[in-house]
Amino acid sequence: MPADLSTEALRAEVEAALQRRRVPACRSLVSQAQAGIEGEGSTHYVAKPFFAYMLECSDSTYYTGHTDNLEARLAQHQAGIRCVYTASRRPVRLVWCQEFVTRDEAKVAEAMIKGWSRAKKKALISGDFDTISRLARKLDWEGYHRRNP
């Protein structure tokens, strides 16, 4: 994928990634709220959604981040601006994204995924939740407390 994609190509890539993702998040709730809920003479709107996302870089590494404008952020990564890590690893490809209602939820998801192994990230990208569960670390709390009284 070339480093300088057109706006239409970026929009198409973001839409394709949203269609591919396996976890439904809160898209239906957000869509309903953004459409406006009529009631008692007023219309209620929900703010723009937030996203946690994962990019695959040209060197096959993964970059995880969060944003409130996925299309613009992807364009920044492709242009090599506002991110030192991806600037030298272009082009990048959006491989996973998840929509959230609040920025805090997106930041928590980003931080959690950044701590995952490559195998676990690959399982997330492919939507293999059985593998994600299997790869989850289980702490031996009794052993931990014996070692750390």
Primary descriptors:
149 residues; alpha+beta; two-stranded antiparallel ribbon
Describe the 3D structure.
With 149 residues, this protein is an alpha+beta fold. It has one domain. Helix 6 packs antiparallel against helix 7 (129-135). It has helices at 7-20, 27-35, 70-79, 84-87, 103-114, 118-126, 129-135, 141-147; strands spanning 37-39, 42-44, 50-56, 62-67, 93-100. Helix content is 48%, strand content 18%. Strand 3 (50-56) and strand 4 form a beta hairpin. The strands form two sheets. Strands 4-3-5 form a three-stranded antiparallel β-sheet, with helices on both faces. Strands 1-2 form a two-stranded antiparallel ribbon. The protein contains eight helices and five strands, in the order H-H-E-E-E-E-H-H-E-H-H-H-H.
Q: Which oligomeric form is depicted? A: single chain
Task: Report how far the terminal alpha carbons are from each other.
Answer: 54 Å
- What spatial form do the alpha-carbon principal axes imply? globular
Which stretches of 5+ consecutive residues score pLDDT under 50?
22-40
Strand content: 15-25%
Helix tally?
A: 8
Mean pLDDT: 78
- Radius of gyration over alpha carbons? 18 Å
Kindly give the count of domains.
1
Q: Give the SSE string.
A: HHEEEEHHEHHHH
The level of helicity is 40-55%
Strand-pairing-aware structural class: alpha+beta
Strand sequence of the main sheet, in spatial order?
4-3-5
Largest sheet: 3 strands, antiparallel
Number of strands: 5
